[in-house]
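Dataset card, provenance and construction

Sequences and ligand SMILES were collected as paired inputs. For each pair, a complete structure of the chain with the small molecule in place was predicted and serialized as structure tokens. The example below shows a pair involving S-adenosylmethionine. Curators did not alter the output after generation; any descriptive sentences attached to a record were derived from the structure itself.
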Amino acid sequence: MTNTQQGQSAPKTESSELDGTGKTVFDGIYTAPDPRPYCETMQALDYAIPKHAQPMFSELFQNYREQSGKQSVRVLDLGSSYGINAALLQFDLELPELFQRYTSPEAQALSTIELMQRDRDDYSNQPAQQTVDMVGFDISAPALQYAQDVGLIVDAVQANLETDEVTTAQSEQLRNINCIISSGCIGYVTTITLEKIIDACAPYLPWMGHCVLRMFSLQQLTTLLQARGYEVEISPELVPQRRFASSEEQEQVVSRLFEMGIDPTGFEDQGWLYAWLITAKPTTLEPDYTMTN
Ligand SMILES: C[S@@+](CC[C@H](N)C(=O)[O-])C[C@H]1O[C@@H](n2cnc3c(N)ncnc32)[C@H](O)[C@@H]1O
């Protein structure tokens, strides 16, 4: 997609509040009982990062399968929300189609219970594209509950490891994770969360694929991963995440980028947030092969 095609205007969302990083606060849509408010808002902002991330995630799982000899991959999705990545990875669904499932007049007419029932039926009747056991990880209990109730995720870790420690129960849930992915979550979660998860998974090092907005420090993330025994690869090209929700958000993010020494010309100054795609694989592979799950 070229910047001209993407356009420069910043559509308004209901929220114009910005957080400490300059990004719009979306708390209300992250904690609704079902995905409709999230999908409506993200569709209006042309949210695209899960779409750009799918090939990287699928390739990561495939490489993991080939290296480990396992067919089934247990994947922790950081900031999994209502199971967006889980739906795209498991079923023959594109992101615009997924948004449409929740924003159509038919979907709007249903109660949450009816929507859940529809999703449960639809997802259980669709053939899975690949064998992945998706484990959701999010601060939002309602989003995790929805994803689990409709069968998109097999387990849910509700946590805020930015402030809290890993509990014994969570540690058990994180024990057999093979791969960790995230889209639209780094920033909300930092190396503080990631380090606690790496500790909980030890001695195994799950393979990772993350989308990182360039307004957040890539350096901090790569330093942690390399120190913990990973080889990190950064995509050669930036990918568009979404339109700015307001001109105020754009101004804040652009000025943050200048402060970080990053030139937004041709990218964020065109009205879109941009992200790097990064993968991290353990430099020593042997311990992972001995896993029994
Ligand atoms: C932009 S959404 C991304 C959702 C999904 N991955 C996608 O790409 O559509 C960010 C998610 O991060 C979650 N989140 C925010 N702070 C978090 C934290 N401290 N720990 C875990 N998840 C968090 C939010 O609840 C929300 O579901």
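Derived descriptions for this record:
The first strand starts at residue 73 and ends at 78.
Residues 16-283 form a domain with the Rossmann fold fold (CATH 3.40.50.150).
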